[in-house]
Amino acid sequence: MRASQDQLIRPRGRRRVLAAGLLAVALAFTSACTADEGGKPSSWQGGSESPAAKATATISEPAADAKDVPASTGITFTTKDAEETTVDLKDAAGKAVEGTLAKDGKTWLPKEALAYGTSYTATVTATGDDGRPATATSTFTTMAKPAKQIRVSSFLGDNQVVGVGMPLIVKFDRAVPEDYRDDVQRRMTVTSTPAQEGIWHWVSPTEIRYRPKVFWKANSKVSYRVQAGGLPMGDGYYGRSDLSVDIKIGSSLIMTVDNKTKRMTVTRNGSVIKTIPVSLGKKSTPSSSGTMVVIEKLRKTVFDTMEELGPEEGYRTKIDFAQRLTWGGEFIHAAPWSEGQQGSVNVSHGCVNVSMANGDWLFRNTQVGDPITVKGTERKLQNGNGWTDWNMSWDEYVKGSALPYAPASPDDAATPTPTPTA
Q1: Three-state DSSP class for residue 21
Q2: Would you call 81 exposed, middle or buried from its count of C-beta atoms within 10 A (0-12, 13-18, 19+)?
Q3: Backbone phi and psi for residue 185, each to the nearest 5 degrees, phi listed first
Q4: In the structure, what pLDDT confidence band is assigned to residue 13 with cuts at 50, 70 and 90?
Q5: What are the backbone angles phi and psi of residue 324, rounded to the nearest 5°?
Q6: What's the pTM?
Q7: Is residue 322 pLDDT above 70, yes or no?
Q8: SS (H, E, C) 375-398
Q9: What does the pLDDT read at residue 102?
Q10: What pLDDT, on a 0 to 100 scale, did the predictor assign at position 354?
Q11: How far apart, in Å, are the Cα atoms of 282 and each of 157, 223, 287, 354?
């Protein structure tokens, strides 16, 4: 469905007629005076056409007169000998559509999904070093609103403040087939101030996450966008709408627990601010060693294992200052019953036990997304048991991207791109 060159070059018949008329006028003047005082030919002589523009432009998608175009469509084009390229998209009423030229210089994406069942005209203008513009146009019509749509949602909402280990989490309410994930990922962009390199990682067919190469820089501003509206997602399904989220990263609070010393070391922005005695999981129910992040915070809750463990081993206990670390039930929480063992003996069922006072202090100073690393226990953290994005090496994490990884340059890192880095 690529437009032919004949479709994209403007007719020039009228221009030739205008040139012929000018020649006739020129001849009338030169019959009275064919040269200036210096004997040089008058500037009225000649009558030839202006030279063609050095640059050229061609629109490949959407093709001219194309119908049923997805509302997510971008304008794909090529240029030759262009010093500057601009793209304009307007609806039938002449209203301009906002958009962004991709870094590769070959694709232009609308800021929002286009309206369904609507005619648009795209114009690509390429200007060479001769200053002459060349244009290509394509008029197309978007598809009717599809019946089968996939909802896209974000775990985080606008203006949330999260920890330096917080992954960006996007979910789809239906599985995205593997063959379509690269297309979806091309429409997912992340920008951060200051600039930081990162990548998207497919956790499952319905969930994708993003993390930087190292922990977020403290007090960063992060924005992420999913241009899924009208995007084909396989089996006749299309994205329901676009998604945009703006968040802020808080201070760098990092917790490290060493089973050997039975101590938690808490640093803020690189400086140790507190050391806390802990009791970890006993040998029959060891805590997991690995890097986790705070998933949720519960000022008061009840741990109930009666159904899981039965009446003999199960328990139902009121808990204060609980901070979830895994889906399997590992928390940091206050445990006044084990304060005598904290710092010396492991007696918990896998949680990080601290005193009431320290549990209160931690609860007041931490936020969702703060990382914690536990070292030296009998059990390794299982990836997927919580937000374990930081429990994988960077090389492992990159393998979860549907697009090839290319390290971002410092200048590129802050720019929205359709690549997996941002």
Answers
A1: helix
A2: middle
A3: -65, -30
A4: very low
A5: -70, 135
A6: 0.81
A7: yes
A8: ECCCEECCCCCCCCHHHCCHHHHH
A9: 76
A10: 98
A11: 38, 42, 8, 15
Q: 333 catalytic, yes or no? A: yes
**In this structure, are residues 197 and 228 in contact, taking their beta carbons and an 8 Å threshold?**
no
**Alpha-carbon distances of 78 from 36, 45, 124, 126, 134, rounded to whole Å:** 47, 38, 9, 9, 12
Phi, psi angles (nearest 5°) of residue 273: -115, -15
Enter the tokens of residue 196: 């930081």
Apex CA 118: angle with CA 116 and CA 122, to 5°?
115
3-state secondary structure of 219: coil
Amino acid identity of 230? G
Closest by Cα among 325, 326, 321 to 362: 321
**Which residue out of 33, 201, 333, 349 is catalytically annotated?**
333
Amino acid code (one letter) for 422: A
pLDDT of 229 over the 80 cut? yes
Alpha helices (runs of H) in 69-177, residue ranges in sequence order: none
Q: Which amino acid does the sequence have at 249? A: I
Q: Where are the alpha helices (DSSP H) in 314-392?
A: 356-365
Nearest to 211 by CA among 201, 220, 221: 201
Tokens 């500037």 belong to 43
Answer whether 55's CB lies under 8 Å from 132's CB. Answer: yes
Q: What is the DSSP letter of 129?
A: T
Residues 65 and 139 sit within 8 Å (Cβ to Cβ): yes
Catalytic (active site) residue 201: no
Using CA atoms of 94, 98, 102, 103 in order, give the dihedral in degrees to the nearest 10: 120
- Count the neighbouring beta carbons within 10 Å of the beta carbon of residue 334: 21
> Kind of pairing, strands 161-162 and 243-249?
parallel
**What is the identity of the amino acid at 237?**
Y
In this structure, are residues 126 and 78 in contact, taking their beta carbons and an 8 Å threshold? no
What tokens were used for 64? Answer: 């001219």
Q: Count CA within 13 A, CB hemisphere, residue 12.
A: 11
State how far the Cα of 377 lies from the Cα of 245, in Å rounded to an integer: 38
Q: What does the alpha-carbon distance between residue 20 and residue 381 come to, in Å, rounded to a whole number?
A: 82
Average pLDDT over residues 59-69: 97
Mean pLDDT computed over every residue of the chain: 87
Task: For residue 168, give Cα distances in angstroms to 6, 207, 221, 261.
Answer: 46, 11, 13, 33
Taking the C-alpha atoms of residue 117 and residue 246, their distance in angstroms, rounded to an integer, is 31
Which one-letter DSSP state was computed for residue 337?
G
Of 45 and 325, more confident: 325
Q: pLDDT tens, 281-318?
A: 999 999 999 999 999 999 999 987 666 666 676 677 89
Instruction: Give, for 155, the enclosing helix (H) or strand (E).
Output: none
- Say whether pLDDT at 413 is over 70: no
